[in-house]
Amino acid sequence: MSANNQPHPVDGARSGESAGAPDPSRSTLAGVAKRAGVSVSTASIAFSGIGSIATATRDRVLQAAAELRYFGPDPRARSLRQGRSGIVGVVLEDRVIHSFRDPMTIAVLDGISQELGNENGGLLLLTSTGIGESSIQSAVFDAAVFLGCSPRLTRSIEVMRQRNVPMVAIEAQHFDGVLSVALDNREASTRLAQHVYDLGHREVAVVALPMDALRQLRPLTDEIVADATTAVSMDRLAGAREVYAGLGGYVAANSSSDDGFAAGLLLLGGADVAGGAGGSGGAVGAGAGAGAGSSRRGRPTAIIAQSDLLAVGVIRAAESLGLRVPADLTVVGFDGARIEGLSDHDLTTMVQPATEKGRAAGRAVTELLAGGHPPDVHFACTLHPGTTAAPPPTAPPTARPTSPVPTST
Amino acid sequence: MSANNQPHPVDGARSGESAGAPDPSRSTLAGVAKRAGVSVSTASIAFSGIGSIATATRDRVLQAAAELRYFGPDPRARSLRQGRSGIVGVVLEDRVIHSFRDPMTIAVLDGISQELGNENGGLLLLTSTGIGESSIQSAVFDAAVFLGCSPRLTRSIEVMRQRNVPMVAIEAQHFDGVLSVALDNREASTRLAQHVYDLGHREVAVVALPMDALRQLRPLTDEIVADATTAVSMDRLAGAREVYAGLGGYVAANSSSDDGFAAGLLLLGGADVAGGAGGSGGAVGAGAGAGAGSSRRGRPTAIIAQSDLLAVGVIRAAESLGLRVPADLTVVGFDGARIEGLSDHDLTTMVQPATEKGRAAGRAVTELLAGGHPPDVHFACTLHPGTTAAPPPTAPPTARPTSPVPTST
DNA sequence: CTGTTAGCGCCTTCAC
DNA sequence: GTGAAGGCGCTAACAG
């Protein structure tokens, strides 16, 4: 009889604990209660403070606890019983290292943690590695925040929903039952492109953020766009294409200045060099339908980078080729990351409230956990004019058509 | 009778769940078993795969689960029963934002996550906010990694020890029962200082990493050193002082180029300006005992920054004052962070294997959880000569005493 | 103010 | 290959 359970078979069994049995059944609330001569529930109250208890009794309990070196309830048991662990899961799209290298991600994480204030227990970092997804389904947390995640999470989301785990998605596509915190990526991108257009640029290329799981620097093709799964880059591209229809360029492997540099070289040197460091095909200049004006597909006079990191790389590439920014080349970014080391440049970019996004997500989580039904949140970007955008070298300085350029396709 | 427990009082009670009761007692393994016409234990086997089960039976169970939208065991219950949650806690000294801005911390985190591979469940980020410490004591995790933490964690460590939670400390002081992963900070720092010395520098100042909880840029005083709680900065200082006895300078508020910049201005402009932007007292030059050679406490000819970020800031400060690096000023860092945007400079620094540190910690955690007793780990730094260190403008190029300079105190 | 009682959801030894 | 039961450690109703 009596199925003897030993959930902690580590000690005696495995390792050769040399010291004299430091764990003859780890002290438990029951043990403390017994030693203090009270019932477990009373002891529980002594620790949680929930319910009333005589000071004397509590002292007795606490002293017994001290003697037994009992420091408080086991978090695991507590979380089972209460149905709450205090942990908020943050699901990152990428390997941790990539996420951490992106100042926007970091800002968002900081915002979340600001609002959650670690009184909740902490942030559990998870990654959606695609296959398996196991960790996200088997991890202990009360609420989940998805950070720019792809639709492959569908199943995990279903599981969470079934478990009544509130979910918030930042910059992801819409999922039913998942609160959305997002940016006006498309509109902002249009505004930025319009800014470039108004300066007179007609030969323009884009360096886009990754659009799918395949992390590789390559020319932006229709297939890639068609199969894209990343909302942010898609929206930013769509926005720019409202001004520059058919805008072409490169897709980066990730948001890094190294990738921006490589793409920049391809775009700026590639026109002549043809087949530089990896990109096989074309996709330079204003791509398919170069807007009104010169249809000559020469070197672009402006490059729209979908992130500031990429933009920084592009600027470096330009300078390494002897081009001056913005005199010879206009470069604009996106994010407002305030990347240091840009020498004298003040990057022209769309500033997004990254930390605020995180804070909003954190607040939403709090409300959801309290049973509320907060609404979706939208943020707007603001144009930072900066000093890296100027009229093209040879263009008419005052062209100002505000309507989209028609596609030539 | 029958104390009716409802650990999840959220639904009906609080929020006005309008939809038709999506959670009439969330599906559980017992429910699945009943529906499949088997016992719970059999159903459990169907999910865990541990134990033998007829294929037909398993299919029946899985189908029943699908029908009930049961997606697998509840992580909370599982973790209580098994005594394992799969979560590894990472305790950061600072607010998340500070940690995330430090490339070394990020590299370490990446190393940890590489080795833990998220099959374990994920990294739980916790911060040692000093007061309370509650979150670390009440959070669910199986093992803890402390990242450069101060001794204020003593109590939390005691709790973890009592709970049999394996602990690994990276770059922290020694704690009993906590596996240590560390760097030869002191020795490396000495080597770097010697390098500077060998170049002929005698007027030297340090920009130190924070030494205690008070995050504020201020002159390095004896009190600060005496009360220091951060092992890394202490060790690096001690190492440098073996070459430059009594080395003085500033303590930064955190490892950032902004702080480096501010400290740089104080050190380089401060000698004349006296009381520039906040630092009241002296602490410039080679401090108390300016080493052999000129005892004139003028502007330093070399600045030893305790991190690359700080060094970058110092370089910017120097250049903003019209000083050329390294012709007019030698600047050395520590870390090997490869910070971008340093223009043409290649920072002279001690390169530390940060990712490796994280990996080692991750591996140690794995072994400890498996019941092993892995040893402490030590890593060495390598000097990267770089291009930001050169002989001082007016110094004899070939001074080469290898023994420490005696203190004048 | 304290004790009793009934599980949270699952796993696991033991018997069949 | 499957079923039956005990309990991980704790908390929340209720009764006294």
Automatic annotation (TrEMBL), chains A, B:
Region Disordered: start-end pairs: 1-28, 385-409
Pfam families linked to this entry: LacI, Peripla_BP_3
Positions in coiled-coil regions: none
PROSITE patterns to which the protein is assigned, alphabetical: HTH_LACI_2
Pro residues composition-biased segments: 390-399
Source species, domain of life: Bacteria
Keywords per UniProt: DNA-binding, Transcription, Transcription regulation
Domain HTH lacI-type stretches: 27-82
KW Transcription (keyword) present: yes
The UniProt record lists the keyword Cytoplasm: no
Segments passing through the bilayer: none
SUPFAM superfamilies: lambda repressor-like DNA-binding domains, Periplasmic binding protein-like I
Single GO MF annotation: DNA-binding transcription factor activity
Low complexity bias spans: 400-409
Listed name of the protein: HTH lacI-type domain-containing protein
Source species: Subtercola boreus
Lineage, opening ranks: Bacteria, Bacillati, Actinomycetota, Actinomycetes, Micrococcales
